[in-house]
Write a structure and sequence with these properties.
This protein has 197 residues and is of the alpha+beta class. The protein has one domain: Pnp Oxidase, Chain A, CATH 2.30.110.10. The protein has 6 helices and 7 strands; from the N terminus they run αββββαββααβαα. Strands 2-1-5-6-7-4-3 form a 7-stranded antiparallel beta sheet. A hairpin with a 2-residue loop joins strand 1 and strand 2. The two termini are 37 Å apart. 21% of the residues are buried.
């Protein structure tokens, strides 16, 4: 990932919090020159250095993950367009964002107990803010439709491009403009749903 020095995030606590809070990402693997990618939610186990998720059994990517020469997960956090009109001096349009790239080795698993623990943990994490959380009642037939993925993390790169190369006054102006009311990510998903035939 291209990351100029002033955008490179190296604080481990900040990176760990980002990975925990932004668990939906792209799992990318390369086998024999062929690239595969899937989008899925992950759980982060910082103590073990693991990312955990699952793929649908019908998704062929899981069949080659163990042989992959390169496995990466890209997690993207908040991002926003930045207008050049928000700066005191002439500038160019840009984008502010936070992203983490993780490289590691993948293992797939389909033991029912291990899968059940994974999907329960995912449900607990993502149902936490719900008024009536779903209990995660997975049966064996449901578990047979997925394959677990465990990625042993070997390297983490973090880029937080947040106008650090601008003056304090410019950063404050950009932050003020970005705080103007805008649809949430969830609202944007709902809008896309409404637009479907």
């Amino acid at each position: 990932m291209y990351t100029p020095t002033h955008f490179r995030q190296t604080d481990r606590a900040t990176i760990d919090a980002f990975i925990h809070d932004n668990g939906f990402g792209a799992l990318i693997s390369v086998v024999g020159g062929e690239v595969s990618a899937s989008h899925l939610p992950f759980l982060y186990d910082a103590n073990q250095g693991l990312l955990l998720g699952h793929l649908a059994r019908v998704n062929s990517q899981w069949q080659t993950l163990g042989r992959a020469t390169d496995v990466r997960v890209i997690l993207q956090g908040p991002h926003a367009y930045v207008s050049p009109t928000w700066y005191a001096k002439a500038s160019v349009p840009t984008w502010n964002y936070a992203a983490v790239h993780i490289r590691g080795r993948a293992e797939v698993f389909d033991e029912p107990q291990r899968l059940h623990a994974l999907v329960e943990a995912l449900s607990q994490k993502y149902e936490a803010g719900s008024e009536a959380p779903w209990g995660g009642a997975y049966n064996r037939r449901m578990l047979e439709q997925i394959v677990g993925v465990s990625i042993r993390i070997e390297d983490i790169e973090a880029s937080f491009k947040l106008s650090q190369n601008k003056s304090r006054v410019d950063r404050e102006r950009v932050a003020r403009e970005l705080r103007r009311p805008a649809p949430s990510e969830a609202q944007r998903v709902a809008d896309l749903m409404d637009a479907q035939p």
